Amino acid sequence: MTTARIQEFLATRRPPSPCLVVDLDVVRENYCAFRKALPDSRIFYAVKANPAPEILRLLASLGSCFDTASVPEIEMALAAGATPDGISFGNTIKKERDIARAYRLGIRLFAVDCVEEVEKIARSAPGSRVFCRVLTSGEGAEWPLSRKFGCTPEMAVDVLARAARLGLDAYGVSFHVGSQMVDTGAWDDALADARTVFDRLGEKGITLRMVNLGGGFPTRYLKDVPSAETYGRAIFDALRDHFGNRIPETIIEPGRGMVGNAGVIKSEVVLVSKKSDDDEVRWVYLDIGKFGGLAETMDEAIRYRIVTPRDGDITEPCVLAGPTCDSADVLYEKAPYPLPVSLTIGDEVLIEGTGAYTTTYSSVAFNGFEPLRSYVI
C-alpha cells in the first residue's frame, strides 16, 4: 500500500516521473517484525535489495548486520555505521583480490560453495570463518535461485572439511529457498540437509555452529503473503524438528521482505494504442520498463500492483510495456494486466511494492534514459 507519507511527498514535491519513493517508517516496522519473529537469529540485511544510504544507516542504527555481494557493498555498509564483524561476504563467486580487499577491511565471514573458493579464501583471508551454501529446489518461490549457487549436501561436507584442513574456521551451512517464497514450510527440507552436513562433519571431528537461513521472505504484491511471525514459527518448528534442543546459531538475510513494501514507483502513461483496428487488446506504454528498474517482470515472475487515478472504472486486459526501443521491454503480455478502459496518455500511476530490486536493476543510460531516481523519506 502507498503510505500517507509517500502520498504527501508525491503531492507536495511533485518529483519527475519515473521515480521511486521509499518510506523509512515501513523499513523500521519490517525490521522490528523480523526481530520479533526470530528473536534468536541475527539479521543480515541483503544490501543488494536496496543499498540506499538512508536505508543502510537506519538499519545499522537498529542493530542490523549486512549481507554483501561485493566490495563496494561492504564499503557502503561500513560507511553507514556497520562494523566489520557484522558484515558477511555472501557471494559465492568472488575475485581473489576482492577477498583480499574485504579481509583488509576487517571482514572475516565468507560464503563458499566449492573447494576452489575455499582455497582462494585460505590464501587471501587466512583464518576466516566460512559457511557453505547448499542447493535447494526453489519450489514455491516466484523468483527461484537454485542451480547457480550452492552444492549438494554431500559436496558441502568435503568443502567444509577442506576449509578446516586449510586453517579456516568451518563455521556453518547456508541455503536460500528462493526469493518471494510463499511456502512457509520451504525451510524444512533445507534444514534437514543442513543437519545432515552437521552430522557428517561431526563424525570427522569438525563441529559446525551456524545455519544461515537465507532470505526468501516475501513482500505483498497482488496477493497476500504470510506474516513474518508466521514464517518465524514455521522456521523455529523446523529447527526444533531437525536439531532438537541443540539449535545452532542462526542468521537470516531478508532483502525483499525488508524493503519491498516500503517503496512505490510513480510512473506516467506515455501511450495507449492498438496494433490493428479490430485488436481487442490495448497496449499501455509506461515511462518505466524492464530496463528502468522493473527487471523482475522477466517471465512475468513478479506482478506488481498498479494504482491508477481511474480505478473504479470498467477494466479490460491490456499488454503493459516500457518505453525503450527494445522488443524485450514488455512487462505483462502472456497474462495481460487489467487496467481501466478510461486510462489515457499523461495519467500518473503508482506501482506498489517496488522498494526492492528496482534501483539496483535500473540501467545506467539504455536508450539515453537516466537511472531510476530514488527518494528516501
From TrEMBL:
Its EC number is 4.1.1.17. GO terms for cellular component: cytoplasm. SUPFAM superfamilies: Alanine racemase C-terminal domain-like, PLP-binding barrel. The modification N6-(pyridoxal phosphate)lysine is found at residue 48. InterPro entries: Ala_racemase/Decarboxylase_C (IPR009006), De-COase2_N (IPR022644), De-COase2_pyr-phos_BS (IPR022653), Orn/DAP/Arg_de-COase (IPR000183), Orn_de-COase (IPR002433), PLP-binding_barrel (IPR029066). Pathway: Amine and polyamine biosynthesis; putrescine biosynthesis via L-ornithine pathway; putrescine from L-ornithine: step 1/1. Belongs to the Orn/Lys/Arg decarboxylase class-II family. It is an enzyme of class 4 (lyase). Signal peptide: none annotated. Residues 26-259 form the Orn/DAP/Arg decarboxylase 2 N-terminal domain. It catalyses: L-ornithine + H(+) = putrescine + CO2. The active site is at residue 325. Keywords: Lyase, Pyridoxal phosphate. PANTHER family: ARGININE/DIAMINOPIMELATE/ORNITHINE DECARBOXYLASE, ORNITHINE DECARBOXYLASE 1-RELATED. GO terms for biological process: putrescine biosynthetic process from arginine, via ornithine. GO terms for molecular function: ornithine decarboxylase activity. This is ornithine decarboxylase. Its cofactor is pyridoxal 5'-phosphate.
